[in-house]
């Protein structure tokens, strides 16, 4: 957050400022997803708006099916299904509002 405050290219930012409605694949109901950050950045062409989610890399892909379906595996499947639904809705939400959605993991944040 200090980075955002001190960077003159960041015009505005916020944390969990708004929600994206999404339908959960687990219960079929509409839920609210609060992305981690909203950032508006100065670019040579004007400005660009980003919606940013920060997640562990392991949660950004479907889990591999083990030989036996353990409780841990079933939890990973549920987490993946919910995250995937959230992110698909967030991409559409952002497209409709001239923003871009991005997921950052420890890989991008440790550069």
How would you classify the quaternary structure? single chain
Number of strands: 6
Specify the biggest β-sheet.
Answer: 4 strands, mixed
The secondary-structure class comes to: alpha+beta
3D shape:
globular
Please mark out the parts with pLDDT under 50 across 5 or more consecutive residues, or reply none. Answer: none
Question: Residue share in helices?
Answer: 25-40%
Main sheet: strand order:
1-4-5-6
Strand percentage: 25-35%
- For the termini, the CA-CA separation is 17 Å
Produce the secondary structure layout.
Elements: H1 2-6, E1 10-15, E2 20-23, E3 30-33, E4 37-43, E5 46-54, H2 71-96, E6 100-104, H3 106-109
Parallel strand pairs: 5-6
Antiparallel strand pairs: 1-4, 2-3, 4-5
């Amino acid at each position: 957050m200090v980075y955002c405050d001190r960077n003159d290219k960041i015009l505005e930012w916020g944390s969990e400022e708004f929600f994206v409605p999404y339908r959960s694949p687990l219960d079929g109901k509409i839920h609210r997803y609060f992305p981690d950050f909203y950032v508006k950045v100065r670019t040579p062409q004007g400005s660009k708006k980003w919606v940013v989610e920060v997640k562990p890399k392991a949660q950004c892909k479907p889990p591999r099916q083990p030989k036996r379906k353990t409780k841990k595996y079933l939890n990973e499947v549920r987490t993946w299904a919910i995250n995937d639904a959230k992110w698909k809705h967030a991409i559409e939400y952002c497209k409709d509002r001239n923003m871009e959605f991005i997921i950052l993991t420890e890989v991008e944040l440790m550069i």
